[in-house]
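Example 3.
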Amino acid sequence: MQFLKVLLSALALLFLGAAPSAALGEPALLTISGEIGSGNQDGKLVLDRGAFEAMPMSIVKTETPWTEGMVTFEGVPLKALLDLAAANGETIHAVALNDYAVDIPVGDSANPKVIVAYRMNGQTMRVRDKGPLWLIYPLSDEPSLRTEATHTKMIWQIKAFEIR
Amino acid sequence: MLSLPRPFQRNAWLLVAIGVFLLGTIVSAYRIYQTQAAIFWNYRTGTWLVVEAQTELQNALMAAKTFRIEPSEVARDELAVRFDVFWSRIPLILDSQEGVDIRRIDAIVPNTHKVLAELPLLDEDLERIQVGDIGSVKPFERRLASLAPLFEEMTRVVLVQDELRYRSGSLLKEMWWTVAAFLLAISAGVVLIIGNLINTRRIRNLLAQREAIERVQATQLAAIESSGEGIAMFDAEGRLGYSNEAFHQLIGDDFTRTLNLRSWRRFLTRDGARTLLRGLRQANRQMPWKGEIRGRTLAGAERDWEAHIMRRREEGFVAVIRDLTDRKAAEREHSLLQQQLHRVEKMDAVGRLAGGVAHDFNNILAAILGFGSLLELDLEDRPEQRHMAQQILNAAERGKELVQSIMTFSRTEKSERAVVEVGAICREAATMAALSIPGPAVFETEIEPRSLPVVGNATQINRAILNLCINARDALEGNRGTVRLEVARVLAEDAGMIGSAPTLPAAQQAVVSIDPISETQTRAWVGGAGKVAEFYARIRVMDDGSGISRGIMEKMFDPFFTTKDVGRGTGLGLASVLGIVKAHGGAIAVDSTIGKGSIFDILLPLQAAPTETAQAQAAAGKESATVLSDMHVLLVDDDPGAGNALGAILQKVGCEVSYVASGAEALAVVVDEPDWFDLVVTDLAMPEMSGLDLASRLREHRFARPIVLASARLQDASLEERARAGIEYTIAKPFTLSEVAAVIWSIAGARATKKIEENARAGAARAFGA
């Protein structure tokens, strides 16, 4: 069953990737633009919640300066997203709902634990809870990441990536 | 107690001020540090949480306004998203780790809670918003806008803190610089104050030192000014600069002219100047030259000076001068005194020696004279042998004289004193002197007719006068000339008849002073130096003979010194005269000029009022012949020779004599038979019991008859001792028959007188009784 689910998701992704569609009626969760190889809408890759949840998911347990205690994040590895978009830039210009923006090196995606989380402690993150998407670095597992620079890169309420 | 350096003790209040100042500084520094700590404590990264929340509030408000313009669905969704974003920021302020620091700031947490409380209400308001209904957004918008002031406040406080935080580095740096500068200033101030204190002390010390130096300089100047030594400074040209008062005295300056800049040559004789130039060449800076120099007073008198010459650093020289003229005189006087002392000591030694010999010799002479006079009596019918006996007596008499002379100058003789008439003695002596001055020489006398009473011994005075007369005669050396004897009464003030001689004679201290008047004339003064009486009897013997040289005058009072040929003089003449005069509290003055003659003055203190003389006694002694008196005499003498002689004479005088050789025997005999003896004659110096002791014991045993003391040393028993022992009569050894006879006669006479008086009284009593 699980296998089937994964297989279906992969297929859907492939399908979406081949023929990305916004016709599902769901609002866009993340828009990836810029230097990307595969777009589904005017050269942009627009992903809704369904598409997101269909992608391979990683779980990262970590503490952050903005949350209390150890938190379980579930989300898509950054690499998977970039691969999906066939991004070939150096920098990800991430933009939040409030138009806050930060540049993230594409290199950071080499770490499979760097994920774009959409669930926190099993709950879908609402905008009120810093959702819908939050770029999470594994701060607890890798102390070297516990820097001001990493904190800056951990952008929440993400609405778009522009690959540059 | 805390021991502090002196300047701090003196300025305790200043120390307290410094302490308070330092304490204040430390407190200030600590407060600054605390503020700095607060700045760090307020460090926060969460400022942006508040700022962003406010921004999202504005965005939400903007979205609400957009809806009011166009109340579309899109606008409503946009508003919902904006509200959600705003909402998402609120928990971050309260929960996030980044918000830890800002939550400590007043107003953050309460304000946030207020906001949090509004969020569900806002959510409800948001639900009620209808697309197309502009009015439906207003409650939401109003409620949301009401939150703005809260955020404004929060933003303000956070930004203020943030400002501090961002500037904390520079603030801190500034603070430390301020503190450093502050401390530097304080340290500099403290150092300055301490330095000032120390400086003040140094200045005080310097002032004290300067005062001390000034005092020393003043003292030195005063010392130099009042120095007894003349001090004069001369410059390089030899001109007088400074000079002290002693120098002016030395040169006899009366301060009537200015001596400054006078050349040093002005104060020296030609000889002295040469000496000084020589001295100056020898003197260098280290070693002064010292020497004697002939100085010259302003009046031109030459003086002996001792000078120290020191070269001065700035050229010129200093001369320290002492007048030697007085010192030389003092030295002369000192050596003279020394000589006199030696002479006195020599005389004393010789005197003692001679006195001892004389005493023993007296006993021998007593035997010769005693038996000689007996022999002379026994040989009345044999003239030839009697003549020989008389020769023996004459020789013994001369021996007696000699011994007396010795005893006189050695002052072992202290014969009876009485008030005697000098005039009478001199007349007597003049008679004898006239006989001894022969041939071409003339003997003149001038004797004061008034009474000249002197306490003394007539025989001794007589002998002294004769001695001087004989010396005067000898000074004429057989040539024509005059010997003159003058006796006068003079005032004590005039008694020092010879010029500069010491004024007054006194018995207590013998002074021998020789005063050379000129090459040929010499004066001498021998005797006391103090006044003992108002008037003096001056016995002057003068001659116009050869005179006495200074050398001889210095020695002529020494015993055994003689200028006469061997056999003609004993050398005891003047020595015994001196002994006699001293014993009388008198003095001798001599003035002699070689080739012109000599004057000898004997000065004897006169009694205030003349009293009865002792001439009666002397007359009694002259009553010679053998007075028969049937008295029984107990004779006591330990010397058999003298005892036998006296015994023989007493028998010759008509006494019955019992002889014993000791006091003890005599006492025993008398106590046994007190009425046997009319008279006791005892020697003085006897072993075991002296004559005085014997007499005392006899008187204790109520022996009332006369006791006679016979001795060569009668002076050993004072008048008081004799009186105490009840001794009324004395016989001086050696004695002649006539002397013993005189004593016995006077005793017999007194006894006879007493008997007559007793008889008379008895007769009168009877007459009255009848």
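The radius of gyration of chain B is 67 Å. The interface with chain A takes residues 45, 52, 55-56, 59, 81, 84-85, 87-88, 92, 95-98 of chain B (CB under 8 Å).
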